[in-house]
């Protein structure tokens, strides 16, 4: 099974920090390895898929 490469923009809703990461799409899940923001936020994010 082949996984597609995607580019993701993640913005923290607590501090406003923005991260742009590359990851792999596997069915309906995207894995970037992102765990938490610099402000220790682990669940309150806006996630947007960008054109690669």
Automatic annotation (TrEMBL):
This is SR1 protein.
């Amino acid at each position: 099974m082949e996984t597609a490469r995607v580019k993701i923009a993640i913005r923290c809703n607590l501090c406003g920090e923005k991260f742009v990461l590359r990851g792999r799409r596997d069915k309906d899940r995207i894995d970037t390895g992102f765990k938490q923001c610099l402000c220790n936020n682990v669940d309150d994010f806006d996630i947007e898929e960008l054109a690669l």
